[in-house]
Amino acid sequence: MKRYPPIAEHGLVGDLQTAALVSSEGTVDWWCTPRFDSPSVFASLLDRDRGGHCRLAAEFPDGDDVTVRQLYLSDTAILITRFMGAGGVGEVADFMVPDESGVPTGVHRLVRVARVVRGRLPFALSCRPRFDYGRATHTLSSADPHSAIFHSAAADLHLQSTTGVRLHADGDDISARFTLSAGEAAAVVLTSGPAGTAAPPRPSLEGVADDLDTCRAFWLSWLRSCTYKGRWQDIVNRSAITLKLLTYAPTGAPVAAATMGLPEQVGGERNWDYRYTWIRDASLSVRALIDLGFQDEAHAFRRWLRDRIDANGAASGDPLQIMYRVDGDPHLTEETLDHLEGYRGSRPVRAGNAAADQLQLDIYGEASDALVVGGDIGAIRGWGALGGVLDWLADHWDQPDEGIWETRGGRQDFTYSRLMTWVAFDRGVRAATGFSRPADLARWTGARDAVFRQIVERGWHDKRQAFVQHYDTDVLDASLLLMPKVGFVSPYDPDWLSTLDAMDEELVSDSLVYRYDPQASPDGLRGSEGTFNLCSFFYVEALARSGRLEQARHAFDKMLTYANHVGLFAEEIGPSGEQLGNFPQAFTHLSLITAAMALDEELAKERTAPHRFGRRRPVIYGLRAPAEDAGGSAPHG
């Protein structure tokens, strides 16, 4: 077992209230329960010794040539890890049965099924939970050889096995060894619950098989609502399933990622907790699902969002804060878990997120778009929520904020923040007119037009011939790739094409896109980061909409090579092509979906209008000879 497997060497399983990561070695090394944002039971991804894990894997003699492969059962969230060697072929299937009842529950089941499909193989089980991020002690009790209970002060974990798997105490942990022949199977079930939770019935293979069928049927049924039938069906389906897995079903609130503390630079300090609902990320995630035809998720999130507006307005006079817990709790106090060494020594490990108190005005644009798209803003309550937001924003849009990237280096007049306030007013004016709803249209229209003029006059940099990050800089920012997408500028506007060219030169590295240059625009943090996957996919979409289809398609195909073995992405790509940051990242998967849809639409248009305005011959695969210097090395660039 590797001390720290690569971030990308994982698949995700979940039940729509919590989720677990399973490595390609068969190790559950991340599971927080009963919710995404609850303390962990397994967190060896952040500390191999103190975090806790549950490993179930086939074993082979030392020196054997063993191949391990991981895959999802097609169009489901059932993860299969296969072990292949001279002794045979075995596999472990991991899954959680989704619960869309809308009722939050404290009890959750993670099912692990071992079976052999060829030959005869031994399996080994090691279950070492460490409650509350490894801070809480536990005791072990057992009623029979097939049941064990790990007790902590706040939570219990039940471990139960089917016939043929006898559990043995290993101090306060559990281990087991068993052998299966071709056609045989065994299962272990982990059931988490509050302290004192009664033991569930002992599992049987028949019952586990029924659970697996139920899980498979759920995902296949859910995907039938997908209207996308384009070229990239498999990867789009996987991204949609991932967004669904990251959504807390009782409230409809999506989280930004399943994990916390995974670094943007190994050994660095950019290690944040992403297990919460950002208004921005959630709005964009839901918009991607709407575009795919998933309306139930949109309705659920809109209800959650309207509740947040009502609660915040009554409490503070401000419509929204930038993020919440999945149940709408606004308190996300940040603490440092000093007892954890962090992924490959990346410290500090943070739980909670102090950025919750930041001012980020762009969220009102994403939120307004999420409320308006789909047409149900005609509802009286929905209109009241949007109207209140826009009335507040009309008084507050023209002020510095921390911006989309949550910099901790001070407030600025960020161009992207202004862009999205323009979106908020634009969507509000359109909705008021389209649904004949009461509104101060003159005020909203005046604010929209004032924002537009300000961006054009102050967000544009004559020397750079580009729109820039904020009004007092010449630094570029990839968030502005959304300018044509939101309708602020035509994708063929000369100023936009000039901005896109500038980004090509400065922020793009072989189709991978940096958010901005932190050296040129200090963000208050030490260290560097990788390229940002959200921006890389938004870049694809911007290229496609601007008529640069060959370049867009090539960039998209290259981006797909950075997906992990089961089609998942983290937040960033590092210098050696490794995945960095929290995993899997909703931002990445929603932007993959929108990029694929944009490419499909533009490729279809190209067949009927191949010489549209703005099309140019791109440099797809540039070649140059190495420099002929003494060392024979090529210049960087």
Provide a compact summary of the structure.
Helix content is 31%, strand content 21%.
Q: What is the element layout, followed by pairings?
A:
Elements: E1 10-14, E2 19-23, E3 27-32, E4 40-42, E5 53-58, E6 67-72, E7 79-85, E8 88-95, E9 108-128, H1 131-134, E10 139-144, E11 147-151, E12 155-161, E13 168-170, E14 173-181, E15 185-194, H2 205-223, H3 233-245, E16 247-248, E17 253-254, E18 277-278, H4 279-291, H5 295-316, E19 323-324, E20 335-336, E21 350-351, H6 363-372, H7 380-396, H8 415-435, H9 441-458, E22 460-461, E23 466-467, H10 494-506, E24 508-509, E25 512-513, E26 531-532, H11 533-545, H12 549-560, E27 572-573, E28 579-580, H13 586-608
Antiparallel strand pairs: 1-2, 2-3, 3-4, 3-5, 5-9, 6-7, 7-8, 8-9, 9-14, 9-15, 10-11, 11-12, 12-15, 13-14, 16-17, 18-19, 20-21, 22-23, 24-25, 26-27, 27-28
Helix pairs in contact: 3-13, 4-5, 4-6, 4-13, 5-7, 6-8, 7-8, 8-9, 11-12, 11-13, 12-13
